[in-house]
Amino acid sequence: MTSLMCKPQCDLATMGQLGFVAGLAVQASIQEMTSLRAKLKWPNDVLIEGAKCAGILLETLSNEAQDIGLAIGIGVNLQHHPTDTPYPAISLNAAAGVSPTTRDMIKVLALHFDRLRVLWESKGFFAIRTLWLEQAYGIGKEITAVLTNESLTGIFRDIDAEGRLLLEKSDGSIHLIAAGDIFFGAAKGKIND
Fold first, then answer.
1. How far is Cα 19 from Cα 100, in angstroms, rounded to an integer?
2. Strands 68-76 and 51-62: what pairing?
3. What is the CATH number for 171?
4. How far is it, in rounded angstroms, from Cα 174 to Cα 151?
């Protein structure tokens, strides 16, 4: 649908927090345009009734002068959604019977992103984390985290001050997950309650 380009004045690790800002902006835009109550799936998806309706991808950009920026790619299923995915997907049209135009969605999204980016810049990640957790999908539920070399199953407890997912295994140990694919329930490929 669109990419947002920004050049935040922070280190590379901190730039990743803008994915949470973007998720909140997409969630707020969907609610404003359709009245649907979308939820946020860690780290970068937006769900409606447990089905993926939007995704966010962050890519760092640099030039010869070592100026670093961030491209935030945002895709929202407005009219159609894929059917050949390992998890349920849905479009705004299928979920709400309305389909905002791409142009209208981008206008609303840009306003919400700018508002939330200003909050992030002025109050820090704590303010964004608090808002994100209020809209999070699956906290307290069993998840399977598929990582590069292993899969971990446990309870999704929280996200920390850096945005990492806290997974509690059955033995009570806590694992911090910085990146991975999350599936709800013990079986990979299901996003469900």
1. 23
2. antiparallel
3. 2.30.30.100
4. 14
Same domain, 125 and 148: no
- What DSSP designation does 157 have? E
Q: Tell me, yes or no, if the pTM score tops 0.85.
A: yes
pLDDT tens track for 8-33: 988 888 999 999 999 999 999 999 99
Hey, is 1 helix, strand or coil? coil
54 φ/ψ angles, rounded to the nearest 5 degrees:
-155, 155
Q: Tell whether 123 and 178 lie within a shared domain.
A: no
Pick the closest to residue 61 from 115, 114, 4 (CA basis).
4
Question: Can you tell me the mean pLDDT for 133-141?
Answer: 97
Q: Could you tell me the residue range of the domain that residue 20 belongs to?
A: 2-134
Are 38 and 128 found together in one domain?
yes
Strand partners, 157: none
What are the beta bridge partners of residue 70? 6, 60
Could you report how far apart the first and last alpha carbons of the chain are, in Å? 28
Q: Is 47 part of a structural domain of the chain?
A: yes
Model confidence pLDDT, tens digit, residues 54-67: 999 999 988 777 77
Cα four-point dihedral sign 160, 164, 165, 169: negative
pLDDT per position as a tens digit, 163-176: 999 999 999 999 99
Question: What pLDDT does residue 193 have?
Answer: 40
